[in-house]
Amino acid sequence: MVLRRLTYYLPVNNSMPPEQFDFRKGLSTIDPILYFTQCVRDSQNHKPTRLTMAVFLDVLKAFDRVWIYKLLKKYFNVFGIKGKALPWISNFLNHQNFGVNFHDDSSSNYKTYQGIPQCCVLCPTLFSLFISGIEKYVNPCQIGLFADDIVLWCSATISKMESQLNRSLVNIQEFAENYKVTLNASKSAASLYTTNRHPYNYSPELFLMSECLKYRNFNAKNTTWNSTITNTRSSELSNLVSDLFLNDGTHNFRSYSYGSTEVLNLTFISPGLLPYSFWRVLDNTGRDHLPILVETELNVNRTGAKNLHWNFRKADWSLKISLTILYRKNLFRTTWKMNGTTSGTPFLQLLILHP
């Protein structure tokens, strides 16, 4: 109820800055990304072309270190939140207790004297109001906010960008000191965006809290989301496929040059994953085989790989054999070209894994 009234009150009174995209009606995490990328594109389309340098700032324990007194004072003086709403928010923030549960044991409860709980739907909006006003300290640079995620950027020549960004970083430090917000320089980074296909051998000197920020070069090749997925999946699943190729005792392609001539294509299928899966060619099995399809859009970590290893041994081979002929006749009727030679319809080995 309080959140709904705040979300109605703030836009009507133009209290929320347009640079803050966090938990606002009609906005999502995509909007600040589009806003930032559009500004980068606009600077690149400008004649003469301007470079864009961005600084990604990390706030140390953002929600846990909110100064409650300063927060309530800002609500009253800046946003005009009065009446019964302000005392209610004050009681909500000043009567928070916490404890620790471990197995069947529980610790005593202790009162919190600072910070905003992150488990409440109201708290992201409260924090957004607390951090608002930082956009007034960054002129002539631009800023984008999503709760405690801050990106600061400037479009100009290299020399001007450095001086303007350093000036804005000094002003942001002043804001942080006034509100007792700690900026984590070790996790903050700078990046340069340019249309030049040959990246500059350049490392900007940008300082935050007297510490030089790390420079990240994002102009490397294969930075698309699909290539990232492919790299992570291949590193986790290559050993699994190598050790348990069909699990039928036949030679696998990594151990022997001729490999197993029966298996040309291998697909992992878990019934619970099918609605969310997107299959992609991940790796070639060798000169005598077609690619193995083992990649999905789902996260695959080491724990997940172990589960796949267990499911692999539990594969329903009778069902696999009965469905193989069906897929062989109706599913793949394309011609594959491998190493300059053309092979016919690939033979599909289908593994039905237990969820």
UniProtKB/TrEMBL annotation:
Keyword terms: Nucleotidyltransferase, RNA-directed DNA polymerase, Transferase
Pfam family for this entry, one: RVT_1
Keyword check for Nucleotidyltransferase: yes
Statement: the UniProt record of this protein carries the keyword Thylakoid: no
Gene Ontology molecular function: RNA-directed DNA polymerase activity
Residue ranges occupied by any Reverse transcriptase domain in the UniProt entry: 1-207
Name of the molecule in the record: Putative RNA-directed DNA polymerase from transposon BS
Gene, per the UniProt record: RTase_292
